[in-house]
Request: fold
Amino acid sequence: MMSWLDIAGMQLIVGFFLIAGVSNLTKARIADHIGRMRTLDTPFPAALFWLGIALQFGGCALIELDWHPAVGVGCLIVFTVGATAIFHRFWQKGDPVQRNFSRLTLLGNTGILGGLLLLLERLR
Reply:
């Protein structure tokens, strides 16, 4: 049985991924992400973008429906690690402001990954 704190934490994590996912589904954001992936030499950028979206929304759905929620958390972990590895290679940024922003985002994603690992442990 999950406590109200466990449920609140889980809902905040899912809410974060849902809001972030929906905000990335505008025509401009899709083009921007795929374009940046292309400039970063990511193989199959369009396919990987849509795979990321599927992992993001699929993982949230599995958690919310309480149907294999640990698999859903696994989807969000794979998404977070992959997106961070693609977009937040701060050491490659020439501009100090962009380098710092990317470093902070990588660190934030590391914290999100920690929350996902705690949730995965709780769901086991």
